[in-house]
Amino acid sequence: MTPEKIKEKISRTVQKITPDISEQIILDARKNAYKSKKEKAGVFSWKPALVFAMSCLLLVTMIVTRPPTKVAAATIALDVNPSIEVTLDDDGKVIEVVGKNEEGILVVKDIDFTGLTAEDALKVLVKALIKKGYLNDSANSILVTVDNEDITDSVLELMEKVLAVCDFQCSVLCQNLKNNPESTALAEKYAISIGKAQLITELIRLDDTYLIEDLVRLSVNELNLLLGNSENTVPGLKRMGRASEKEYIGEEEAKEIALASIGATEDEVSDYTYEIDYRHRNIVYVIKFVYNNTEYMVMVNGTSGTILECEQENKEYKYQYNSDGSKGPHNDNGSGNGSGNVNKGTGIGKENAKRIALSHANANEYRNYRSELCNQDGRLVYCIEFEADNRERKYVIDASTGEIIEDK
Amino acid sequence: MTDFCEGSIDDVRLDECLERIASADMDGFRELYELTSHILYGFALSIVRDEYLAQDCLHDSYLKIIEAAGSYVSKSKPLAWMLTITRNTCRQSFRENRNRVSLTEEQWLSKASEEDQVSMVDREFLNQCLNQLDDKERQVIMLHSLTGYKFKEIAQILKLPLSTVLSRHNRAIKKLQQIVRQEE
Questions:
Q1: Which residues contact A338 (CB under 8 A, 6 or more apart)?
Q2: pLDDT in the model for residue B20
């Protein structure tokens, strides 16, 4: 079909479905005019002679000096923890600034934004947010939600300019408001801003293992930390600067903890990567690397530095194992596994857990072995999975006693 | 309603209508409505994507046009002025109706049976047009389909560079052609 035919089809359909409400509009216009006339008359009716003079004067004054009716052209919503909405007219001047939550109301309550440009209003707001301690070098992220796609880029540029005066590095997340009923329902249910709800909805769409109940509790800075994760690239979201990690142990310390937990040094590992994520109700550092032909994933609590999960995986090498437990796995070049104990404390250690599981399964040959040290109802356990005799096996073994809690 | 592609909109005639409205001649409004309602409604629909909300926006936009007709100064672009009012009204309404859930596809299609003039196929096509194109693509395609305006004029109304309007138009046409091919 040609472009002309397509447009003709659209035009024809729209013409057919356009409602005829002209008489209703005429009626409402007359009502409005009457109402407006009556209101004016009501004010001055006590002195008819003066009414005429005043009306004339008023009319002349209105014609000469009446400012154009301000129509909202765009709204910029800021979320730090305080949520604030700035409504602009077509000239980029502020019509109103409204606090959308308790903290937001406190930030804007004593400030007069009348007639300010968007830039000036944002400067004043940023200053107030810093002064009241909401924006600082530990919580340096601002979520900006714009309902007018045309100005998103210029708002981001504006924010960059406004935040340049800060003596710490800020980070801005900028998104367009989408008419998404899911986000609206979320915002209402948890009393959060629509912008934050939209961001959470997008994050859950990317990774459905995140829980809404968890993410709604996170600050904008914490959500921004998750967005630093390469798998969490939200379409259409623009990001400037990095979220502050000052509240957390940082990548270097997390790496040291992870490597020490398996007895490796930095020189001995390859394919090192790290990401920040939210798991077990904590901001965590997920450290991945290869050590002795085995891929490791160690999840370190971002606040306390404790290890929450440890997982190893070897898909390429088939292991031989003697049922008496005397020999560890080996690969085709004959080298042993050689990794240290995952648990250097009082636990049985991952190797013993492995022996217990393999021995119980009577598995001389096995592949795709995975183990995780995790917290199950307050009890440290090894969750082990592998394939043996063309069957998937799963074990849960108490990390302290070696007791088999579950086997499938 | 007016026929499609009758050529560009008769701006002189629209100016005359606005003058008549300013002097409280409501027949002037009836004529203006006859000439422009499908354009304003289609444009509103492309912004809010909800028939009921688009009708509300159409209503409020015309009220504003009637109210402002007295102070309107013709710059030979009355339709562009009316479209700007419509766009601002839609945005305002969009903000106020964030909680509103748009018509589902079933609801949208069921309306076809209520309106004998519109075939199910046409309505489905329009529905696809509203759902498969992004905001700007929809607005460009709707304005170009309904007004017969040149891309340069559409760029002015949407406050976008001409090249952006052209690329969005081409992208939208490709998407719509694909939809038509799938339907066939």
A1: A292
A2: 92
